[in-house]
Amino acid sequence: MIRYGELVKYIKDNHVSWNTDLFDVLKGFFEEYSPPPSFPHDTSCYPSEDTVIPQKREFSEPEEGEYNTNDLLDLFST
Predict the structure, then answer these.
(1) Domain assignment present for 24
(2) DSSP tag of 63
(3) How many folded domains does the chain comprise?
(4) Contact yes or no for 75/59 (Cβ under 8 A)
(5) What are phi and psi for residue 37, nearest 5 degrees?
(6) For residues 60, 66, 68 and 71, what is the CA-based torsion angle, rounded to 10 degrees?
(7) Residue 29 belongs to what domain range?
(8) CA angle at 34 for the pair 20 and 38, rounded to the nearest 5°
(9) 11 lies in a domain?
(10) pLDDT tens digits for range 40-64
(11) Span between the terminal Cα atoms of the chain, in Å
């Protein structure tokens, strides 16, 4: 939660005009006071180009009439 005083200080320090849209003021405030997102530099967490993405298969009702766990996962993933 931001403090009103912090927002007022930001407005004074940056000489924000009273005619500036409030959302633009807040956007600038959060860009200045929020740390930039950090992204992992370790590339091992990203899929390689050789990674095979499984293709979804068409769901069909089980022949035995009873659904198993994999059937349910397939049903909800389509």
Answers:
(1) yes
(2) T
(3) 1
(4) yes
(5) -65, 140
(6) 10
(7) 4-33
(8) 135
(9) yes
(10) 666 666 666 666 666 666 666 777 7
(11) 40
